[in-house]
Amino acid sequence: MMISQCQRLMAGIILLRGGSWVSTGNESIADSRYAFRRHFYQHAGFRYIESESEVKQEFNIYETDDLISQYLEFHYGASYFDVPNFPKACIDHVVSVLDTQKTERALDIGCAVGRSSYELARTFDHVDAVDFSTRFIRNALQLREHGKVRYMIPIEGEITDLKEFNLADLELGDRAHNIDFTQGDASNLRDKYTDYDLVFAGNLIDRLYDPAAFLINIQSRLRAGGLLVLTSPYTWLEEYTDKSKWLGGIKDNGENVMTYDGIKQILSSSFDGVCEPIDVPFVIRETARKHQHTIAQMTVWKKC
User: 149-167: per-residue pLDDT in tens?
Assistant: First the structure.
C-alpha cells in the first residue's frame, strides 16, 4: 500500500504529540524522569553525572579562520620589523595624555579581538568593547573566559603553524572581567553606551558607512572633559563608504581635502585638540614572507 507524503507527515506529528519529547535526570535520584511512562516514545534524552571532586576542563579549541587568526596575531602575537604592537602603542600614548582623575569608564569602539580593550582595562574601572563582527567578539569573549587562545597562522601555501598565547603572559589577565564585550554597530549605537571619560575608535573611521554621523553622535556619549581618540590610515574605499560621505582624500573645487581637516571641521565646535596628530605604524602579517606595513594617524580631542 502506498503511503502519501501527507500521511507520513501526519504520522510524525502524532508521534511527537504522543511521545515523551525529552527526558532529563539521573536515574539514581527521586526527580528522575528517565523512561517514565514506558509506553511513550522518547525522542531525546540527556544524562549527567555529579562528583564531589573539582572537574577541570581544558580549553583546547584553536582558531582556523584566516582573518581571525590574522587579527589575533596582529593584536597579541610577535612584533615584526621592530614595529611595536599597534593597540598597545595607541593606548600607551592615550594614557600619557590622560587626566588620571577621570578613569572610570571607557568605550573601545571597533575593538576587533580586544587587545586595546585589555590595555584600557589597566587604567579604567570599566571598559565597554564593541565591534560589528560577531566573530571578533566571540574570540574576545573566549579569551576573557579561558585566558588563552590557540590559532593557526599561514607559513606558505597550505602549510600552517599553531600558535598560542596567554593573557597572563602579557600581564593582561588581572582586570579582564572589567571589560564587557558586545556586538554592535558604531553608526547605530544603543542608548546604554554613554557617559564615558574616553572613547577610543581605532582604525574605524574609514570603514564606516557614515563617518560624519558617527562623529556627531559620539559627542553626546562623552562626559565634559572626556577624550575622543581616533586612529586611521585614511584608506577610503567605496566598498565601505560611499564617496559622497568620505571625510577627506577628495578634491573640492580643485582643492585637496585631507581627512584630518574633515574631522577637525566636524569636531571643532565641541572639542579642542589635545596634541598634534601623531603617526603610529603597524604591521599585519599575512604569511611568513608577506606583511602589510601601514601608518595610521592618531588624533586626540577633548570635549569642552
Answer: 999 999 999 999 999 999 9
